[in-house]
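Thread: sanity check for a docking pose with zinc ion

Original post by kr_44:
Hi all, I'm comparing my docking run against an independent structure prediction. Below are the sequence and the ligand SMILES. Could someone generate the full complex and paste the structure tokens? I mainly care about where the ligand ends up relative to the chain.
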Amino acid sequence: MQVQSWYGLPARIAVENELWHLVEVGGVALHHPPVVNLILRRGMPTADRLYLSYLHEFGHLQTLPVAIAHALILTLIVRWRGRKLGDVILNLLAGAIAHEAVWELASEAYVIAKTGPEYRRIYQQAPNLFGQAVFWGGMSTLALLLTAWVMRGK
Ligand SMILES: [Zn+2]
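Reply from moderator J.T.:
Ran it for you. Here is the predicted complex with zinc ion included:
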């Protein structure tokens, strides 16, 4: 499906099946296993799952500026000079995981904003409290703790 983000970046999204999704931006294809969708959409009817998964992938494109802002803040605010290589690598790794977590949260928040009451209806019909708790709790914890940990050395 050909899409365009609100800031003008065109992309192609394919929710090919339940195991692999494709997001292609500017000819660069990003294949990834939709771990988030597997956790969050467990037990959901296929049509709902594919619908929300598609919006989630589009959400990654729509919230890309949020992810870039987070990465910029970490890169610019943290004092990287004079650190040992091992320390830098560890912090970059933590920063990358925090960055992914922030982006996942932003993407799913986009899905909720976009679908509104429909989101609630789908989850009422296929309750998945455990998956939702794991996603929101886990991603928020990773995003906050790791961001704070990387920023401690500013
Ligand atoms: Zn995602």
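The radius of gyration is 17 Å. Hope that helps with the comparison, let us know if your pose agrees.
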